[in-house]
């Protein structure tokens, strides 16, 4: 129970990777505060996570709301951010506004969240952001997402210097089976998962729990900062 009595804030902790991160921290003895936009998802997450979890409605793109949220939270140990919209599409035809909107979410949302959280994070604490394997190995149609993920990783290196001794790291997942793909038609989704699984050294798409352990590691390990942990089933080597 190395994280016993830690207070952990997970922005995006009501679904997918973030929800699995919340469970993993609870298993280590921490108390968790999950935040996202949908009241419905927050209620469902609280029911699933139990009494050591609380939840708040928050859109991390809104700087004033994010500041007010962290003032309510007060001092805490570890920040995890898993919220963020991606964007995919052919570079020539993807509207610039769509790329900017994804930047507003996944890059600027994480930037704004760290800025508002920092005065409340204990000096012994940690911040872990989220990028994605397309930052290192983009397929076709991922130029904007590759730029966003690379920007998040660069931000964490800068913040590791600016926020020290608070540690700042990034988890970069490969393909993970989460509700982010729930908008896809089932056959198309399963086809994509199968194709990606076959292309990987480890021959399966990740479960959120496999990714969540990386966030716990980065909160626990007191000598890691400015790093990006790639958890991608061998995508970078295949
Ligand atoms: N799944 C993958 O294959 C994969 C691969 C590489 C990287 N990633 C990255 O991992 C992160 C998590 O993805 P996931 O698959 O776990 O997605 P997910 O299941 O859709 O979860 C996203 C979470 O973020 C919250 N959220 C989204 N926009 C928000 C906003 N503006 N303000 C506050 N909360 C917001 C959502 O809740 P609300 O809707 O209630 O706001 C939800 O709790 C994302 O950054 C994604 O790009 C995922």
TrEMBL record:
UniProt cross-references to Pfam families, sorted A to Z: adh_short_C2
Alphabetical list of InterPro entries matching this protein: NAD(P)-bd_dom_sf, SDR_DHRS6-like, SDR_fam
Coiled coil spans: none
Protein name listed in UniProt: Short-chain dehydrogenase
Organism of provenance: Alicyclobacillus ferrooxydans
Family per similarity comment: Belongs to the short-chain dehydrogenases/reductases (SDR) family.
Gene3D superfamilies given in the database record: NAD(P)-binding Rossmann-like Domain (3.40.50.720)
This protein's UniProt keywords: Oxidoreductase
UniProt keyword annotation of Oxidoreductase present: yes
């Amino acid at each position: 129970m190395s994280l016993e009595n830690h207070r952990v804030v997970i922005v995006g902790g009501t679904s997918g990777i973030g929800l699995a991160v919340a469970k993993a921290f609870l298993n280590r003895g921490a108390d968790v505060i999950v935040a996202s936009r949908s009241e419905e998802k927050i209620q469902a997450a609280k029911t699933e996570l139990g009494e050591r979890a609380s939840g708040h409605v928050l859109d991390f793109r809104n700087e004033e709301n994010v500041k007010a949220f962290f003032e309510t939270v007060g001092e805490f140990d570890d920040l995890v951010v898993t919220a963020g919209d991606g964007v995919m599409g052919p570079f020539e035809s993807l509207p610039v506004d769509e790329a900017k909107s994804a930047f507003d979410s996944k890059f600027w949302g994480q930037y704004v969240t760290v800025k508002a959280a920092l005065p409340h994070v204990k000096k012994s604490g940690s911040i872990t952001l989220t990028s994605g394997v397309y930052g290192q190995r983009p397929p076709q149609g991922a130029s904007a997402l590759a730029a966003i993920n690379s920007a998040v990783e660069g931000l964490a290196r800068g913040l590791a210097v600016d926020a020290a001794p608070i540690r700042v790291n990034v988890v970069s997942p490969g393909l993970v089976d989460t509700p982010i793909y729930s908008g896809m038609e089932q056959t198309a989704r399963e086809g994509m998962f199968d194709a990606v699984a076959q292309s990987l050294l480890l021959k399966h798409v990740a479960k959120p729990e496999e990714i969540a352990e990386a966030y716990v590691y980065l909160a626990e390990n007191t000598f890691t900062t400015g790093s990006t942990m790639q958890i991608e089933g061998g995508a970078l080597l295949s």
